[in-house]
Amino acid sequence: MRIVVDGDSCPVKAKIAETAGRFGVPVIMVASYDHVLQPEPGVTVVQVDRSGQSADMYIAAHVEKGDIVVTQDYGLAALIIARDCHGISPRGDIYHPGNIDYLLERRHHHAKARRVGHRAKGPKPFTIEDRERFADALSKLLLRLQENV
């Protein structure tokens, strides 16, 4: 089991490294060359080209059954669920077969609304509470998965 991170826009990289270190789980941070990430003990950095979906496509092609993927991208979440991986958002929401179709449909609905001129507020600002909720959710997921091994 590894934690694979869609690192281009992930606000909880430090929490991931800290939590993974406590559980002895290796981390792979995947990001474009536009983002400077430093490897550290237990964390491997993979740099990909600058195109919009390069990090997602790298992750989808390289995850293995049982890996945990941290991403905000519902499309990537759907791909990794299909590969028997576990998905979690930086706000601590778990992606699973029971909610991914709804999330993709909602994303499609919002995109259609934007195309006809509807304005959206965008995501809420990321808070310290979000960061803590993520760390708690990741810890619980890691505990559950390690108990089931």
Shape: globular
Question: Averaging pLDDT over every residue, what do you get?
Answer: 89
| Percentage of β-strand residues | 15-25%
N- and C-termini, Cα separation: 10 Å
> What is the number of beta strands?
6
User: Largest beta sheet, briefly?
Assistant: 6 strands, mixed
In spatial order, strands of the major sheet run 3-2-1-4-5-6
Number of helices: 5
**Unreliable stretches, pLDDT < 50, 5 or more residues?**
none
Order of helices and strands: EHEEHEHEEHH
The secondary structure category is alpha/beta
Radius of gyration computed on alpha carbons = 15 Å
Oligomer: single chain
Helix % is: 40-55%
Protein architecture, described:
This protein is an alpha/beta fold and 149 residues long. It is globular, with a radius of gyration of 15 Å. The chain has a six-stranded mixed sheet, sandwiched between helices. It has helices at 13-23, 54-62, 74-82, 100-115, 128-147, and strands at residues 3-6, 27-32, 43-48, 68-70, 86-88, 94-95. 44% of the residues lie in helices and 16% in strands.
What's the structural blueprint in terms of helices and strands?
Elements: E1 3-6, H1 13-23, E2 27-32, E3 43-48, H2 54-62, E4 68-70, H3 74-82, E5 86-88, E6 94-95, H4 100-115, H5 128-147
Helix pairs in contact: 1-5, 3-4
